[in-house]
Design a protein that fits this description.
By secondary structure, this protein is an alpha+beta fold. The protein has 17 helices and 19 strands.
Length: 638
C-alpha cells in the first residue's frame, strides 16, 4: 500500500498557516462534550494534556510513574533548539528546517519539519512565560549555545538540566488544568492494550500498578506520547521503565510501525563498567562545545595517564575528519567515529571502549569558573559515577543507545492509520528522519503538545458524535480479559531464568547485531536468535509475586515480552533497507572513507510495517518522500 501523509501543498513557507485556516474547528461549547485520553505525561503528553484542557476538552491523562514530574523528559540535559537568531549569526526558520532535513539524512517529511521549525520560536516564548529559567547572558538576554549538525548557536538551555526545567513548566500548566477539573490525572497506570471498535480507537486498557486491577477507559480520541524504544538494547541512557509497550500494543491492533530501524546512538555517554550494569548515563552533547574529543595516535599509549600523552601524540579525530563542524559533528557520525577509533585498538579505559573528552583547552582559555557555570552539574554527576574529576583529567565517553527516530506512522495531523489514534513526540516517526540533531527532541515534544495537536485533533473530533462508545461496549471487556490472560500466563510459567537475564540476552544480540554497524549476516543472525530468546521467555521465565499487588517483576516481564516481538520487526526493517542513512549504518553500503551511502533511487520512502502475528513476516507499506525545498544531496559535514 502507498501511504498518504496528507501534507499540505503549495509554498512550504505558508503551508502550516494555510493548513490551520483550512481545518475544521470545534465550537467552544462543544469542546466540553468530548473526552480525550492522553497516555504519557512527559513534554509531549504533558503539554498536550494541558493545552487541550485549556481549550475546554475533557482530558484524562495517564502515566506509569507516581507523578508526571518523573517522566523521562526530565533526563534531557543540553538544550532545546529554536530559530530566534539572537546571536545574529545567520540563523533563520529556513536554516533550522534545512539543518533538520539534512541532519536526518533526507528521510523525513518536509512539511512536518517546516512546521517544527516555524513553531520553535513560540515554544521559547511559552516556556519563558511559564518561568523556565533559561540561561541568560551578561546583559540579561536569553543565551544560546551550539549543538551538533549546525554552524549557528540556536540552543536555549538551563545549565545541564534543560529537560527538567521544561518538564516543570509543562507540569505547572498541567497542574492548573487538574485543579480546574479539565484534566483527570491517573498516575501509576500502564497502558496494556488499545481498544479499537470497528477500526477506530476508542479507549485503552490499563493495569493499576499499585493494586493490580485491570481498568478500562473510553475516549473520543486517544493520544499516545509514550516515548521511544531503545531499551530494546537493554543498556541505554533511557530510564529503565521506558518501553515499547504502548506503541507496540497499538501496532498489534493495526497501527503501522514506521522506520523502526532508525535508532540513535549518542556519542557522549559514560562507558559501560562491568556486565552487571542496568543502565547507562548520558553526558550532554553540549559538552562538545568546550570539550575536545581525542584518542592516542598509538595503541601503546592507551594505558598512559592522559597528561603523559603529548599534544602531537593525540588524534583529535573529529576535528581531523570533519573540519567544518569539528567536535560538533552530528551524533551518528560522531558515534561511528568513536567506534572506529576503538576498533582500531586506540580506545581508553579498562574496557578499551572509550575516548577522551578534554576540557583543558577551554579551561585555559575561559577559566574553570566559566566551564563550571555552564556544565557544573554534569561534572558533578560524572565524578559521582566514575570517581574522576573531569576538570583535572579528560572525561571518558563512549556511544550508547539513546533515542528512537522511528515510531508509529502518522500523517500531517499526527494521526496514525487507525482513526482516532494520535501519536506525539518520540513515539511517532515524523520529523527526525534517520538521525535526530541534538536539542531537537525537546523541540519536537513541546511543538507537538503545545502547538500542533490542539489544532490537528479538531477536524477529527468535528466529524464525531461525542461519547457514542463507552466502557460497556464488548470490546472493552474482551480487551481486559486478554490482558488478564497474558498476565496469568506469565505468572504461571515458573521457569528458571529471570526477566533481567533474558532482557540482557536480547540486548546483547541487538547491540552486537543491530547496533551502530549492521550487516546482512549480523541481521540474519539476530533474526535467528530473537525468536529463540522469545521462546525461552515463554517457557522458562520466572516471574515472582502475584497479579493483584505491586509487582515490578511482572511489569518488567510484559515490557520484555513486547520488546521480544518488536525487536524482530526492527531487525526486519534494518535488513530490508539496503542502504546506509543516518543512524542506520549497513557495512555493505559505505563510501571508501567509511561514510554512509544512501540509496535514494530505491529507498527514498518511509517504511511502515503492518503486524501480521508472531512468527509471521510483517507487511511493508510505503510513503514516498519528496524533496522540493531541500534538494537530495550527499550529506557531508567535512
Amino acid at each position: 500500500m502507498i501511504l498518504d501523509g496528507k501534507a499540505p501543498t503549495g509554498p512550504i513557507e505558508t503551508s502550516w498557516d494555510k493548513h490551520r485556516f483550512d481545518m475544521k474547528l470545534v465550537n467552544p461549547s462543544n469542546k466540553r462534550k468530548f473526552k480525550i485520553l492522553v497516555v504519557g505525561t512527559g513534554l509531549a503528553g504533558g503539554a498536550a494534556a494541558a493545552s487541550l484542557g485549556e481549550l475546554g476538552y475533557n482530558v484524562e491523562a495517564f502515566c506509569y510513574q507516581d507523578s508526571p514530574r518523573r517522566a523521562h523528559s526530565i533526563a534531557a540535559q543540553g538544550g532545546i533548539n529554536a530559530a530566534k537568531s539572537y546571536p545574529n549569526d545567520g540563523d533563520s526558520i529556513y536554516r533550522l528546517f534545512y539543518d533538520t532535513v539534512k541532519g536526518g539524512d533526507f528521510r523525513a517529511r518536509e512539511a512536518d519539519v517546516w512546521r517544527l521549525a516555524q513553531v520553535s520560536n513560540n515554544i521559547i516564548d511559552q516556556c519563558v512565560a511559564q518561568g523556565v529559567p533559561f540561561a541568560r547572558d551578561y546583559a540579561g538576554y536569553l543565551d544560546n549555545r551550539s549543538f551538533g549538525g549546525a554552524q549557528v548557536s540556536r540552543t536555549f538551555y538551563a545549565r545541564g538540566q534543560t529537560g527538567q526545567q521544561l518538564l516543570l513548566g509543562a507540569y505547572s500548566a498541567l497542574s492548573r488544568q487538574i485543579k480546574n477539573g479539565q484534566v483527570k490525572m491517573y498516575a501509576r497506570r500502564e497502558m496494556l492494550d488499545l481498544v479499537v471498535v470497528d477500526g477506530v480507537a476508542k479507549g485503552i486498557t490499563c493495569r493499576n500498578l499499585v493494586t493490580g486491577e485491570i481498568e478500562s477507559y473510553w475516549g473520543d480520541a486517544v493520544i499516545l506520547a509514550t516515548g521511544g524504544f531503545v531499551n530494546v538494547f537493554y543498556l541505554s541512557t533511557n530510564a529503565m521503565g521506558c518501553s515499547a509497550t504502548a506503541i507496540w500494543k497499538a501496532t498489534k491492533k493495526g497501527a503501522y510501525m514506521a522506520n523502526p530501524c532508525y535508532t540513535q546512538i549518542h556519542p557522549t555517554c559514560i562507558p559501560q563498567h562491568g556486565d552487571k550494569q542496568s543502565k547507562l548515563t548520558l553526558m550532554s552533547e553540549s559538552l562538545r562545545n568546550d570539550g575536545r574529543v581525542w584518542v592516542p595516535k598509538k595503541a601503546e599509549d592507551c594505558d598512559k595517564h592522559p597528561s603523559e600523552i603529548p599534544e602531537e601524540a593525540r588524534d583529535y579525530y573529529l576535528e581531523r575528519k570533519y573540519p567544518s563542524f569539528g567536535n560538533l559533528a552530528p551524533r551518528d557520525i560522531a558515534s561511528r567515529a568513536a567506534k572506529e577509533a576503538c576498533d582500531d585498538g586506540r580506545g581508553v579505559g579498562e574496557s578499551k571502549r572509550g575516548v577522551f573528552l578534554d576540557f583543558q583547552a577551554s579551561i585555559d582559555r575561559l577559566g574553570k569558573s566559566v566551564i563550571e557555570g555552564r556544565y557544573g552539574n554534569l561534572f558533578e554527576m560524572y565524578e559521582k559515577i566514575t570517581a574522576e574529576d573531569g576538570y583535572e583529567r579528560p572525561m571518558r565517553i563512549y556511544p550508547a543507545p539513546h533515542y528512537s527516530m522511528g515510531g508509529l506512522w502518522v500523517d500531517y495531523q499526527c494521526m496514525s492509520n487507525i482513526p482516532g489514534l494520535f501519536v506525539l513526540g518520540e513515539a511517532n516517526f515524523s520529523v527526525h528522519g534517520a538521525n535526530r540533531l541534538g536539542a531537537s527532541a525537546l523541540m519536537q515534544g513541546l511543538a507537538d503538545g503545545y502547538f500542533v495537536i490542539p489544532y490537528t485533533i479538531a477536524p477529527y473530533l468535528a466529524s464525531l458524535t461525542p461519547g457514542q462508545i463507552k466502557t460497556d461496549h464488548p470490546e472493552f471487556k474482551q480487551s481486559a480479559e486478554n490482558v488478564k490472560q497474558e498476565i496469568n500466563k506469565m505468572l504461571s510459567i515458573k521457569g528458571k531464568k529471570t526477566v533481567g537475564e533474558l532482557h540482557r540476552e536480547l540486548g546483547s544480540v541487538m547491540w552486537e547485531d543491530v547496533g551502530m554497524a549492521r550487516s546482512e549476516a549480523s541481521l540474519k543472525h539476530a533474526l535467528k536468535r530473537i525468536p529463540e530468546i522469545r521462546e525461552e521467555f515463554w517457557n522458562n521465565v520466572n516471574v515472582t509475586g502475584g497479579a493483584m499487588e505491586l509487582n515490578q517483576q511482572l511489569e518488567n516481564a510484559w515490557r520484555l515480552a513486547d520488546f521480544l516481538e518488536f525487536a524482530e520487526m526492527m531487525t526486519t526493517d534494518a535488513l530490508h533497507r539496503e542502504e546506509s542513512c543516518g543512524g542506520h549504518f549497513r557495512t555493505e553500503h559505505q563510501t571508501d572513507d567509511g561514510e554512509a551511502m544512501r540509496n535514494d533511487e530505491d529507498f527514498c520512502y518511509v517504511g511502515a510495517w503492518e503486524y501480521k502475528g508472531v512468527d509471521k513476516a510483517p507487511e511493508l507499506h510505503k510513503e514516498p518522500l519528496n524533496f522540493e525545498n531541500v534538494k537530495l544531496a550527499v550529506r557531508s559535514y567535512k
